[in-house]
Amino acid sequence: MKRFSIFGLLISWSLAIWSCGDSNRKLPYIGQHDVNEKGDSVYHAIPDFKFVNQDGDTLTQEAFKGKIYIGDFFFTSCPTICPVMKTQMLRIYEKFKDNPELGILSHTIDPRHDSVAVLKAYREKLGINTNQWQFVTGEQEKIYEIAQKSYMVSAMEDKEAVDEGGFVHSGAFVLVDKNRNIRGVYDGTKEKEVNRLIKDIELLLHK
Amino acid sequence: MRLKRPVYATLIAILLVNIFSACSSDAEVKYEQYVISGAEIYKKNCSNCHGLDGSGLRNLYPPVKGSDYLQDKNKLVCIIKNGLEGPINVAGKTYNQKMPAAKGLYNLDIAQLITFLNDKWGTSKTILEADEVARVGCELY
Known about the structure:
The structure holds 2 protein chains of 2 kinds.
Chain A: H1 2-19, E1 33-35, E2 41-43, E3 50-53, E4 58-60, E5 68-74, H2 82-95, E6 102-108, H3 116-125, E7 133-137, H4 140-150, E8 172-176, E9 182-187, H5 191-205
Parallel strand pairs in A: 5-6, 6-7
Antiparallel strand pairs in A: 1-2, 3-4, 3-7, 5-8, 8-9
Chain B: H1 5-45, H2 47-50, H3 73-82, E1 88-90, E2 93-95, H4 107-121, H5 130-135
Antiparallel strand pairs in B: 1-2
């Protein structure tokens, strides 16, 4: 009897470990869920957008068609959290370099200063030389709107991140899947959170 | 109660060691305190751009580690106080990203910070005092 219970315990343990395993993990859908006429769940999605990238070219959602991507918001003259975010984003960039299924989209929240030429120089100094990581500028209102309403980063506003120019912004990295649904929001200033993001990217890529 | 002779001798020895070590290490203790406080100040005010390991960020932010700027402490004081703009050359590479002035730092903070920077990444292991920081005239730079 005793031997049997130990055996049972071992089985239940291994079942527990197996069911918690990474391969079985599912990422949540972030944002509001709606139900359509057919009764299917409709998840919050990033709408169509149109910005200008570091080369002066128009960049829309088409650039990320069939890809998962990470969106973030920053500005080049930010001395607070942006350099840390970029250091962390570089880890992701290096890890998934040349993977055609992963993109990175960094939006400036200071388009008055961050012109196409400024973004181009900034990107070059960071050593980004593939199209995988795009830097975009555009109308300030449009950028703020998509940040707050679509990427929902206003919820993670950090009051400490106000620089002299008065910009309030979150250090979030937003993970968007191939259907433009948000599957995770991570603090891009923290190494551990970015480790979690890297695992989640791998999970989405292998689906 | 009468103490035995060896006990007296030991007590006196301990006392002497304490006195001597205390005297000779006053400056050392202060130096260590500056380095420890300076490390905290660096972490809070500088490491976002220059990195926790002092190596900067690619071609965007210059390294502190191995930088010639560490040798000219007066110039360093002024850069920290007033910030820096325009292209600069560090360890053979050109950088051009604006550095903001560290307005929240007192002379003592700057003294501790520079003491730390040199201890960790420079060649000089000497303390920089707050009144030395106060005496630097930044109009020259």
